[in-house]
Design brief:
- It is built from ten helices and six strands; from the N terminus they run αβααβααβαββαβααα.
- It is mainly α and 200 residues long.
């Protein structure tokens, strides 16, 4: 567990000892070896056989694997839980950016965004345009969602979203925030899994 770790990334409040102990107990039950592998991570989220869900969860795993060793140890696990359950909006957006930036070049291109939006769209059917008259909204295709996000967020028109454009675009436009954050709710998935797991 000799990884580089910064608590600054997940600075959203103090964790009490009892909560940390509960997380450790659950981690040890799920991962007796002390590390969480991709297949175990997918099992935690009940992802088997669904390619879209699998791709999304793999992106989450990579974002949580701070040292890039293809495992999540207890420190990474605690940092991940703390981020999704208590992290600030900016920290969550930075984390989301890491998931979207599949090639890790520091920018999100249309294809990367489309891949993620399609995955999330299949999972959540959340891509709707809200209109003033009607809260149901019009169902958009993933391509339309990507086009609209790039129109609203890609300030320099280079066909790529930088981290700054991503964060500022989300802050500036409510619809963009909703679309960029539609996957930033792993906290609800984690909370559901914690409730379903054995009580300690």
């Amino acid at each position: 567990m000799g990884q580089q770790f910064s608590w600054e990334e997940v600075e959203a409040g103090e964790m009490d000892v009892a909560e940390l102990q509960e997380w450790y107990k659950r981690f040890v039950v799920e991962c007796p070896s002390g590390t969480l592998f991709m297949h175990e991570f997918k099992r935690l989220f009940k992802v088997t056989g669904d390619e879209s869900a699998s791709q999304y969860v793999e992106g989450m795993f990579r974002a949580f694997d701070k040292n890039g060793d293809n495992t999540i140890d207890f420190l990474e696990y605690v940092a991940a839980l703390n981020l999704v359950l208590r992290g600030s909006l900016e920290h969550k957006l930075r984390w989301t950016f890491k998931i979207y930036d599949k090639d890790r070049n520091g920018c999100i291109d249309r294809l990367e965004l489309l891949d993620i939006v399609e995955s999330i769209y299949k999972l959540k059917k959340a891509c709707r345009v809200e209109t003033a008259k009607d809260n149901d909204g019009e169902l958009l295709t993933p391509e339309e969602v990507v086009d609209r996000i790039f129109l609203l967020v890609d300030e320099n028109g280079d066909g790529q979203l930088s981290l700054d454009e991503f964060i500022e675009g989300a802050r500036r436009d409510q619809w963009v925030m909703k679309m960029l954050q539609m996957d930033v709710n792993p906290g609800s998935w984690i909370t559901q899994q914690r409730r379903k797991s054995a009580m300690f």
